Amino acid sequence: MQKSSSSASFGPEGLNMAQSFFKPIQQTSSPSSNNRQTKISVIGTGNVGMAIAQTILTQDLTDILALVDAKPEKLRGEMLDLQHAAAFLPRTKILASVDYSVTEGSDLCIVTAGARQISGESRLNLLQRNLTLFRDVIPPLAKYSPDSILVIVSNPVDVLTYVAWKLSGFPANRVIGSGTNLDSSRFRFLIADHLDVNAQDVQDVSRGQGVVDPTIGLWRLLDSSENMRWYPGIVKQISKVGCKLGDPRQAHLISILFAVSIELTISFKQAYIVGEHGDSSVALWSSISVGGVPVLSFLEKQQIVYEKETLENIHKAVVESAYEVISLKGYTSWAIGYSVANLARTLLRDQRKIHPVSILAKGFYGIDEGEVFLSLPAQLGRGGVIGITNVHLTDEEAQKLRDSAKTIAEVQSQLGI
Questions:
Q1: How far apart are CA 278 and CA 163, in angstroms?
Q2: Which residues contact 218 (CB under 8 A, 6 or more apart)?
Q3: Is there a single domain that holds both residue 389 and residue 289?
Q4: Same domain (yes/no): 319, 235
Q5: Does the pLDDT of residue 381 top 90, yes or no?
Q6: What pLDDT sits at residue 106?
Q7: Lactate/malate dehydrogenase C-terminal domain location, by residue (predicted)?
């Protein structure tokens, strides 16, 4: 008997449900099929590059890891430091060289190399210097690994992903920017963990109080002052986003934020930041659901008052969170390391998960600003970008997304590439 895979075809005449959920992208190529060892190359061994390399190693995502940097002594030191940990890591061959031939045959090339901004330097001048750098980085990667997927991490990531696409000549589905994958994680963190809420603990407490209906009983559970005292972290976060405890207009929004954290493992993953990885990013509050019920539409239907300023302050905290880390330790590294390793896992293991990453956005959500790369919720797999999810946006969110695209397009137009 021939073994068959799970089918997405249901209903009369085998309707393919997957085609309804995802819009196909253009200029694609099929993934290569072979049984050789998996190879990942990381370009740039600074703080970010090494955090990515270390996370990839500890998560056993590749058989061969190649490191490339322009500084040979530092590069060899980083290689040796990782090799000396061989007894504590999964078996992985670690290579390093200033010559890009070391990347030959890579399945995934992760680019973290980039020029640092000089004090008083304009953003455009920084971009021009990074464009010059990418002219030396991207073509050899494309030469030695013509079937690889490029993941760009260097900032400004959206514009540089566009640059990498142009310089590589790769189809659009195989050039991806890390985009707002990390921003979305920060978004979830600020809504959930900053409330000092653990999803499993909350579920345990709920069960202890009886069965909680996610659309009715939860409000009663959370609106009681006794339960509010159980979670002092809520009070701390309320003050950060401009709410006052006891304000009747904010009580239900506080409950919503708490409820969202309970749904973290199921629906909370739909909490996306999209658009530019930067100041013009867009928080998709309308995509967050609790128990399958969209938060904002539920509030509107129930005529529950909430203030947009509260939501905007949470989004502002997402945008500024990286600056806070940089001001405290001088750079960001671990979070982006885990974020990119997460992308690598999805891509190389064909997990077909949804990630908000920087992709060629023309034609999606009314974006017609030319060949702009920005973050949209995309399904990723072994061939790169498989499709773009049909997330419902409010008119306001859609307009903000188009404005974000326009911001990026204006910068790209000055590059002359």
A1: 18
A2: 206, 212, 255, 259, 262, 290, 291
A3: yes
A4: no
A5: yes
A6: 97
A7: 268-409
Q: Is the dihedral of CA 18, 24, 29, 31 positive or negative?
A: negative
The total number of structural domains that make up the chain: 3
pLDDT, the chain, mean: 77
Report residue 243 CA to chain centroid gap. Answer: 28
More confident residue, 232 or 413: 413
Catalogue the active-site residues: 277
Q: Is the separation of the CB atoms in 38 and 66 below 8 Å?
A: no
Tokens of 297: 């539409």
Domain that holds residue 42: 35-179
pLDDT (mean) for 377-389: 93
Residue 318 lies in a domain: yes
- For residues 99 and 172, state if they share a domain: yes
Same domain, 300 and 390: yes
The enclosing domain of 89 has a CATH number of 3.40.50.720
- Within a domain: residue 14? no
The radius of gyration of the chain from alpha carbons, rounded to an integer in Å, stands at 23
Residue 86 domain-assigned?
Answer: yes
DSSP letter string over 153-213? Answer: -SSSHHHHHHHHHHHH---GGGEEE-TTHHHHHHHHHHHTGGGT--HHHHHHHHHHT----
41 plus 158 within the same structural domain: yes
Give me the CATH number covering residue 341. Answer: 3.90.110.10
Q: How far lies 241's CA from each of 44, 223, 315, in Å?
A: 37, 19, 10
CA–CA distance, 39 with 301 (Å, rounded to integer): 51
Q: Collapse the DSSP code of 359 into the 3-class scheme (helix H, G, I; strand E, B; otherwise coil) and give the result.
A: strand
d(CA 103, CA 67): 8
Query: Based on the domain organization, do 371 and 389 belong to the same domain?
Result: yes
Q: Is residue 284 part of a domain?
A: yes
- Report the DSSP beta bridge partners of residue 379: 354, 387
Is the same domain home to 142 and 240? no
Above pLDDT 90, what percent of the chain? 42
Best-predicted range by mean pLDDT (51-55, 191-195, 303-307):
51-55
63 burial type by CB count under 10 A (0-12 exposed, 13-18 middle, 19+ buried): middle
**Do 272 and 356 form a contact (C-beta atoms < 8 A)?**
yes
**Residue of 115, 186, 116, 175 lying closest to 150 (CA atoms):** 175
What distance in Å separates the CA atoms of residue 277 and residue 336, rounded to the nearest whole number?
13
Farthest-apart Cα atoms in the chain, separation:
70
Are 173 and 113 in a shared domain?
yes
